[in-house]
Amino acid sequence: MTAEALWPYALEAYGRPGVEPLLLALQDDHEQCVAYLLWSLWMAASGRDADDAALRSGAALARAWQDAAIAPLRRLRRDLKTVAKPGPKPARERLRDGVKKLELDAERMLLQMLEEASPTSGGASLPPLESLMRAARAWGGDPPAAKLARLAVLA
Question: So where are the chain's domains?
């Protein structure tokens, strides 16, 4: 992978102070897709034209993969955390850790698919906040502007 590849960018952005809890709040409270939002930020940062058609196409791809792979793994991981604990703790934790790894692998695959479907660089890129706002609208729902603005600054 190159230095401008989406996966390393996503890891670096996600690791910045304040970004992880903000992305998780956007995911859990506003039904946004973390990988899709990171993709929109990456496109803005790498000079890729995130026009409405590209954003809608990316949203459709991300939604399909999220519904098929990521969401079921996330539900299972969360269920394993809260379910009655009949078995030995180490076995439950190992199972949950394994599911967590699969969930992360599925998210990485989504980022790879989004990168492969991205417009090429060199176009007119959007400012980060505008890219996030347009991506959130393409994803669906009422984008929480204050949280997206904070994410644009932090990431």
Answer: 6-154
Report the C-alpha gap between 36 and 50 in whole angstroms: 12
Rg of the chain, C-alpha, whole Å:
16
Model confidence over 84-128: pLDDT tens digits?
A: 566 666 777 889 999 999 999 999 999 999 999 998 876 667 899
Query: How many Cα atoms within 13 Å fall on the side-chain side of residue 96?
Result: 16
Q: What angle do CA 146, 152, 141 make, to 5 degrees?
A: 50
Residues 80-104: b if buried by 16+ CB within 10 A, e if exposed: beeeeeeeeeeeeeeebeebbebbe
Non-local CB neighbours of 37 within 8 Å, separated by 6+ positions: 23, 26, 132, 135, 136, 151
Total-model pTM: 0.89
Q: What letter would DSSP give residue 18?
A: T
pLDDT at 38: 97
Read off the amino acid at residue 103. E
Say how far residue 78 (Cα) sits from the centre of its chain.
Answer: 18
Give the 3-state secondary structure of residue 124.
Answer: coil
Contact by Cβ (8 Å): 92, 80: yes
